[in-house]
Amino acid sequence: MSDDLSRAAFRFAHRLRVRWVEVDMQHIVFNGHYLMYFDTAIADYWRALALPYQASMQLLQGDLYVRKATVEYHASARYDEQLEVCVRCDRIGNSSIRFVAAIFRAETLLISGELVYVFADPASQSSRPVPDGLRQILRGYEAGEPMLQVQVGSWQALGGAAGAIRTEVFVQEQQIPADLEWDEADATCLHALAVNRLGMPLATGRLLPAEEGSAKLGRMAVVAPMRGSAVGRQVLEALIAAARARGDREIVLHAQRSAIGFYRRAGFSDRGGPFEEAGIPHQEMALQL
């Protein structure tokens, strides 16, 4: 167990800005909101572990229940300040997991706390031993180990898992007709698949064979709970690396409007004007290799 509350002692940080609704008549954050900040950070911590929480708990046949939550106030946060809510898995017992939490304004410690969860059967809420897989993931994350693996290969090798993600995201969530989602190009494409340490597929994408040095990237999909994490970026980087390795000179793609910022941050530039594809606004983008 470590009592180090310095900013450097935490690998994980969730960043937020204090909203007006969260301050009290003293113009400082109302004391109860700090527990909400801790809880928000814990949700983001699971994304950092590459674990979509609900699906992961179902796979592990349990759930986590709060047994203890403490808050210690060192200084106050105020309206519009930018904060870092830091979380560290500090100890894993037989059935309990202890997290240390701390809230910083830059390097200044404002709030510290402790969160103790018990892994338990969801029906009876009786405690169960923390599964070895979860134990190893928590320890691995705090030790700096990678939380997912990106596999690159053929449709024959990866299509089962990749197809399930695309069905969930494009057909079920975005209501794209199935006959528009599936095509013969899958058989000749290079596919990428991100898998977490529980073996759960999280994201996919594909790279078509290049024509005159120009390759088209598409079918990028990330399961909803993992959006905003690094999962999609790692799939994209794997496909870019594969295009470079085979000598392609550029990659083009049709980005949904909501994903344009994601591709711009990866170095892609707009090409031409917006258009509709499958009833969804898109923008053609390109990356020179």
Structure notes:
The chain has 289 residues and is of the alpha+beta class. The chain has 2 domains: 136 residues, Roll (Thiol Ester Dehydrase, Chain A); 140 residues, Gcn5-related N-acetyltransferase (GNAT) (Aminopeptidase), CATH 3.40.630. The chain is built from 7 helices and 12 strands. The strands form 2 sheets. The chain has a 7-stranded mixed β-sheet, with helices on both faces. Strand 3 and strand 4 form a beta hairpin. The longest helix has 19 residues. The termini are far apart.
Q: How would you describe the shape?
A: globular
Walk across the major sheet and give the strand order. Answer: 6-7-8-9-10-12-11
The level 1 CATH classification of the largest domain is Alpha Beta
Q: Mind telling me which CATH architecture of the largest domain this is? A: 3-Layer(aba) Sandwich
Number of domains: 2
Averaging pLDDT over every residue, what do you get?
95
Order of helices and strands: EHHEEEEHEHHEEEHEHEE
Radius of gyration, CA atoms, in whole angstroms: 22 Å
Structural class: alpha+beta
Question: How many β-strand runs?
Answer: 12
N- to C-terminal separation?
48 Å
Task: Count up the helices.
Answer: 7
The percent of residues in helical segments reads 25-40%
List keywords for this structure.
single chain, about 290 residues, alpha+beta, Thiol Ester Dehydrase, Chain A, Aminopeptidase, seven-stranded mixed sheet, five-stranded antiparallel sheet, 7 helices, 12 strands
Q: Topology, please?
A:
Layout: E1 12-17, H1 33-48, H2 53-60, E2 63-73, E3 82-92, E4 96-105, E5 108-120, H3 132-142, E6 148-153, H4 155-173, H5 178-181, E7 190-196, E8 201-207, E9 214-222, H6 231-245, E10 250-256, H7 260-265, E11 269-277, E12 280-288
Parallel strand pairs: 9-10
Antiparallel strand pairs: 1-3, 2-5, 3-4, 4-5, 6-7, 7-8, 8-9, 10-12, 11-12
